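Revision sheet: structure tokens.
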Amino acid sequence: MWKQRQQRSPFKSTDTLIGHGGTLEGKVHCDTNLRVEGSFSGEIHCSGTVTVGEQGTVHASIVAEEIIIAGKVFGDITAERQILLLGNGQIYGNITSSALSIVEGGLLNGSVSMTEQPAQNKTGGLDIDTNRNKKNKRAPKQQGSREAG
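Predicted:
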């Protein structure tokens, strides 16, 4: 009986919402997605996606996996994966991310720092065999030494 309760705990709870008309100040740490439709001031640390809706206003630093801005954000934001600034979104602060998309009409007033994305095995880039290149570089030297000797 106790084991059944422990097995249910790995499931994530529902998303967190700061609704339209709501005002919240402080620090928010969440393991799920967060949506802000009201007003928030402070700090946000989120393991999921942070979405600032069209009516949302955030005066905070935001650190999250992914950030989507349709409202106003005043503060520095950092995303592990990507930042999406929608057409009516506004960011007043510095951003750091491995991917950035700004839809026409989006406003960004601050600096951008791009980080490298982790290498993925399924990308279609060139596969360069460094051992083959080393062998080709050594081959002329070996032939030249055989002819001289």
